[in-house]
Design a protein that fits this description.
By secondary structure, the chain is an all-alpha fold. The protein has helices at residues 4-8, 16-30, 40-61, 63-77.
Length: 124
């Protein structure tokens, strides 16, 4: 992502004088009046570049606009914090199946391969 700082070739910590100097240098280089004999497509590219440089300068020279721009940049660059989805709603508790002979609950740790009640020994 190209920032206004990249366009002007200055650091995000640059002072107002540095930003102004960078703009003046680029404005002299890309001002549309500097290339009167260029064909239309080249002239359009130069005008687009000049508009880009001017927009960057207009934003960074104004303290309020620059602060807003820096805030947006930091929000774009900060990593997104993962928020896991909320847990599913609790399910109604299911009662353990009962032994057909002693009517005691069959413990949940009994696997389906075990075929006998741990209390009375009857087959399940």
């Amino acid at each position: 992502m190209t920032t206004f700082y990249d366009i002007l070739g200055v650091a995000p910590t640059a002072e107002a004088d540095d930003i102004k100097a960078a703009f003046r240098h680029l404005a002299m280089e890309f001002h549309p009046d500097k290339t009167p004999g260029a064909n239309k497509s080249v002239q359009r590219l130069i005008e687009d570049k000049f508009r880009e440089v001017k927009e960057a300068y207009d934003t960074l020279k104004d303290r309020t606009k620059r602060a807003e721009y820096d805030n947006k940049l930091s929000m774009l660059r900060s990593p997104k914090v993962y928020q896991p989805p909320p847990p599913p709603p609790p399910q109604p508790s299911q009662k353990s199946p009962l032994c057909p002979r002693c009517r005691r609950p069959i413990p949940t740790w009994i696997t389906s391969t075990e075929k006998f009640c741990t209390y009375c020994g009857s087959s399940l």
